[in-house]
Design a protein that fits this description.
UPF0309 protein ABZ921_07060; single chain; SIS_dom; UPF0309
Length: about 250
């Protein structure tokens, strides 16, 4: 039943988000499938999976880590100070994204090794941190999946010394189709655009890639290492068995 106090602007936001979801479903299906294949290959070969994002891009990385219905092997590659807005001041996280050399230090001290897969999420893909993360990861022998808005590469300038973007250093690029500025709405009397949709779309892309990987594993006759909700009967026991079997590839649980 609809409310008499419906907001037309709220409805416009839903329409914009739905439109973007339909756009990535139709136009990025091949890239999503390719990303799923890379993830499945790593699971099958004994590799590990990592996801990284800075600032709000980290939300999509966190969404697939230790998640009911998700692959147990996806680990968060965390960079202190850039994971979320809990750091004070919040602007420090944005500043750290532009620090040269930080990505290399993080990867060198991480458990990542050749044959693993790293998903790097960066809306703009223009800052030093995601660019160097991708470059260093590939140099170490990892496969890199980039989830980014390709539009930024034509409408903005890179902040990395190479002049390149995240998309230039990936084995698979998944384009989120988000417009530069990440604001879908405007309104008379409001002097700035608003209504960011990147989190909605990127989270959906991450879950779609995971679903594609699960499908690929099932086609190969491999039982995907999935987690179940701890709020359903038997969930904790199920997860305990998964942790025991795959403990050497899971780093969010000691």
């Amino acid at each position: 039943m609809s409310s008499k106090s419906e907001s037309k602007t709220a409805g416009r936001y839903f329409d914009a988000a739905i439109g973007l979801l339909q756009k990535v479903r139709d136009e990025e299906s091949g890239s999503v499938a390719d990303a799923g294949t890379l993830l499945a290959d790593a699971v099958e070969s004994g590799g590990r999976l990592f996801a990284f994002g800075a600032g709000h891009s980290s939300l999509a990385a966190q969404d697939v880590v230790y998640r009911a219905g998700g692959l147990a092997l996806i680990n968060l590659l965390a960079v202190p100070g850039v994971v979320g807005v809990d750091v004070m001041p919040a602007t420090l996280g944005s500043a750290l994204e532009r620090v040269d050399g930080l990505a290399g230090a993080v990867l060198d001290s991480s458990p990542a090794r050749p044959g693993d897969v790293l998903v790097i999420i960066s809306l703009s893909g223009r800052n030093s941190l995601p660019v160097e993360m991708a470059m260093n990861a590939r140099a170490l022998g990892l496969k890199v999946i980039g989830v980014t808005s390709v539009a930024y590469a034509t409408e903005t300038r890179s902040r990395h010394v190479s002049g390149t973007f995240l998309k230039d250093h990936c084995d698979v690029v998944v384009d989120s189709k988000i417009g530069v500025g990440d604001a879908e709405l405007s309104l008379d009397g409001v002097d700035a655009p608003f209504g960011p949709a990147s989190s909605v779309v990127t989270n959906a892309l991450m879950q779609a890639m995971t679903a594609a990987a699960i499908e690929k594993l099932a086609e190969r006759g491999i039982h995907p290492p999935l987690l179940r909700s701890g709020n359903v009967d038997g969930g904790h026991d199920w997860n305990g068995r998964v942790f025991q079997e795959y403990g050497d590839r899971i780093f969010y649980r000691h």
